[in-house]
Amino acid sequence: SFLTGIVLLGESQNRKSSLANTIFGEAIFKLKEFNDAKSFTTEAKTKFVNGRNFTLIDTPGLFDSGRPQKTVKSELMRCMIESAPGPHIFLIILKVEKYTEQEKDVIAKIRRYFSDDALKYAAVIFTHGDQLPEGMNIQQYAAQSDGLWELVQKCGGRCHVFDNKYWRNTEEEEYRSNKFQLAELFKTIDKILIKNKGGHFIKKHIEIEEEKIRQSTNQSPNDTRDRAKSTVPNGLMILIVGSATGAMVGAFRGNSTPQDALYGALKGSQLGYIAAAEAKTVVDAILKAAQAALLGECKK
């Protein structure tokens, strides 16, 4: 069945891991703490839920203040590879509380790194639902803040609210239950997939830019695609190129049997993204990834 890759983004204390466990219906993901260096790692799990295979990519607080840039870059690359061929959906996790300058900064970093096109694939998910004022739904809550409402609107008006502590088994009010919100979230996921024709963020970003270029210039198809690719945020392009180069070299090294080639591609992809974390340009990423895959142990 079609595999849907979903990336969870947000600050460490916003209970992303708890939300991932709620979506999967069991405690699969480990809870992460900001000060625990061992917990700063991307975790991906796949499970058949609601009639579809989902891969949830639970990221650490990638955009928390104080994170070393080198470490953040490495984990972003891991995140994108885990969601290969590319994220189908982003869930931006916030808390039901005042929309702070710190959270605004996190959202700005997300938009800067992934571009505003990513918001076409995104929904805003609020945790700590027990803090939602009585008689108010989450749309009404978000509309109280101009900045927060702008974010929700850029995400197509898509937002939901969960409480991973108090709403687990409640039946007192339909809206204030994770069961109800989860059913609504799955509907939102389907709508995002239908709207984007099942495509993933990176591929769609390039296709949109290609169409814009075709309408304004008379360039050849190859030149048009090359120019469109150049609009992908530099960090993502380094990621894509590094992992793809590593995978290609790894598959070549492991080509004695189909199984060895597959193993080599997977191992090469891992080596490629680790090496590309040190790169500052796309060309540098290619060189570093290829060298790492050639020198690495890509066979069984």
From TrEMBL:
It comes from the Eukaryota. Signal peptide: none annotated. The keyword Transport does not apply. Pfam families: AIG1 (PF04548). Residues 1-210 form the AIG1-type G domain. Belongs to the TRAFAC class TrmE-Era-EngA-EngB-Septin-like GTPase superfamily. AIG1/Toc34/Toc159-like paraseptin GTPase family. IAN subfamily. This is AIG1-type G domain-containing protein.
